[in-house]
Design a protein that fits this description.
One of its GO terms (molecular function) is DNA binding. Pfam families: TetR_C_8, TetR_N. The protein has 199 residues and is an all-alpha fold. The chain has a domain of 136 residues: Tetracycline Repressor, domain 2 (Orthogonal Bundle). Helix 1 crosses helix 2 and helix 4 packs parallel to helix 7. The longest helix is centred in the C-terminal third of the chain and has 23 residues. The radius of gyration is 18 Å and the shape is globular.
């Protein structure tokens, strides 16, 4: 309980600061002052400001994209994730602008690879095959770059258009694991558009 409260306060403080400055320009001192949590408490749960940011991004994924593992349709989980990014645009614009090795962008790439390879593994695809890994890596990397551009340019293009572009690079042999046949039929944009590889 105490951990949940402290984590919520820390992320609230970080969120407020990210509406004003990029993550690289913030310090742990700034975050603990904004959150009202002690330095000891901060380091009890996080190694640095990037760990705090990345941990909270993972919580967003757990409420959106990762719900695909619970049987929620892929397009729905994708749309929810992009809507979350768009609803918190200034925060994500300042969070994604980082050159640090522990940056959100690097974290997204790593967690996206794990997620997509996990889906393929569940479907008995040999994820150790070099071609399989490189196809997913290319898909994830390309879609991450497009998403970063979309965020930095103000998320002006509709989410369904963004997702349609991203879906174009999803390797055709893996589509069926993310977009079942029944989603391919009928109104493709009832909630959102086609799917992509970015998480």
């Amino acid at each position: 309980m105490e951990q949940n409260i402290s984590e919520a306060l820390l992320f609230k403080g970080l969120s407020e600061l990210l509406h004003k400055k990029t993550i690289d320009k913030l310090s742990v001192t700034d975050i603990i002052k904004a959150s009202g949590v002690s330095r000891a408490t901060f380091y009890r749960y996080y190694t640095d400001k990037y760990d705090l940011l990345n941990s909270n991004y993972k919580k967003i994924l757990e409420n959106t994209l990762f719900r695909f593992d619970e049987g929620i349709p892929w397009r729905d989980t994708q749309y929810q994730l992009y809507q979350e990014l768009k609803d918190n645009l200034k925060l994500f614009q300042n969070a994604i602008r980082s050159s640090d090795v522990n940056s959100l962008k690097n974290y997204i790439f790593t967690i996206s690879m794990d997620f997509f390879l996990g889906v393929l593994k569940k479907n008995k695809v040999d994820i150790h095959d070099w071609k399989v890994r490189k196809k997913i890596e290319a898909c994830v990397y390309g879609n991450l770059e497009i998403t970063v551009i979309w965020i930095l340019e103000g998320a002006e293009e509709p989410i369904k258009d963004l997702m349609e572009v991203m879906n174009a690079v999803l390797p055709s042999e893996f589509r069926r694991y993310f977009i079942p046949d029944e989603q391919e039929n009928g109104d493709r944009y009832s909630l959102c558009s086609d799917d992509c590889c970015f998480v």
